[in-house]
Design a protein that fits this description.
Blueprint lengths: L2 E7 L11 E9 L20 E11 L2 E5 L4 H14 L10 H12 L4
Antiparallel strand pairs: 1-2, 2-3, 3-4
Length: 111
């Protein structure tokens, strides 16, 4: 699973003024669409996107000031904010370039 970093407003968890930020490191799973019936199952429900925050640091300007252990309520507010405001990347998968180079290397002798 890929890891991302995003700055969220510190006021979101009631800890600071509007100009201070909380830098969070998190993993993101895009979820899945519902799947219709198949031979081995009667259909699968949709899975919503998931975010798991792994680290949080209070920022002072552009510098990490101190780590912050999120309470369960703070964690949920940060996850909800990220799901509403953060845009997941839409480019190629990180492994695509590696796979392309490997395929090119394997097919070079075929010409």
């Amino acid at each position: 699973m890929q890891t991302f970093t995003e700055d969220v407003p510190l006021w979101l968890i009631d800890l600071g003024p509007e100009d201070m930020m909380l830098r969070v490191v998190f993993t993101y799973s895009p979820g899945k669409d519902a799947c219709g019936p198949a031979y081995d199952h009667g259909g699968l429900p949709a899975e919503p996107p998931e975010i798991e925050v792994t680290e949080a640091h209070i920022m002072l300007g552009f510098h990490v000031r101190q780590p912050h252990a999120l309470t369960d309520a703070e964690h949920q507010r940060v996850v909800d904010w990220l799901l509403e405001n953060w845009e997941p990347p839409t480019g190629p998968e990180p492994d695509d370039e590696r796979d392309r180079r490997r395929d090119d290397a394997l097919t070079m002798g075929d010409e």
